[in-house]
Amino acid sequence: ESQNRIWADISSIPQYLQDALVSIEDERFYSHNGVDIPRTLKATVTYIFNRGSSSFGGSTITQQLVKNMTGDEKMDPARKIREMSRAMSLERKFSKQQILELYLNTIYLANNCNGVQAAANKYFGKDVSELTLAESASIAGITQYPSLYDPLVNPDKNIEKQRIVLKKMLDLGKITQEQYDTAYNEELNFQNKSIGSDEAQSYFVDQLINDIIR
Fold this sequence. Notes:
Elements: E1 4-5, H1 15-25, H2 37-49, H3 61-70, H4 77-93, H5 96-106, E2 113-114, H6 116-124, H7 133-142, H8 155-171, H9 177-185, H10 199-213
Parallel strand pairs: 1-2
Helix pairs in contact: 1-7, 1-8, 3-4, 3-5, 6-7, 7-8, 8-9
């Protein structure tokens, strides 16, 4: 299956889209060193008591980026330790902004969309820089379970998740009550735009990711 990935510089990605993903995926992103110790301990206990049957959980944005870049998907403690070590190494070499930029450009957002620019084009027919808060929260909500929160297949589920994202942003002080109310009540107009993958950009991004992995 072809992937649609169009690179977006962090400067063109609205702050509330950045905040939406950090709020829902990794609220301590700006303060940890790649591994969120409280979350990891909680995930470890859950893993042990579920006898290893569930996924490990507890991944930070940096760990998710490592997994996206390496394709290392095995569900076992050894893989998790490798991922944590690589995440801490990545944090020593790159700024939080660089890590977030890479993450925002590599996350899978259903319908062969990799990254927030492709998703903005696909679902709203817009450049990522033009997204509203409501649209940003809708896109951010997809990442945890793309097939369930796919706006084209399950628009009601997507809106349900979007409102969870908005509430989390409000609770963390990323948006005001007024912004929350406006976004909550905004009617989302989902589209299904066909987007061509920019092969030159995609090749550049692939090279960049390979360099970082090395």
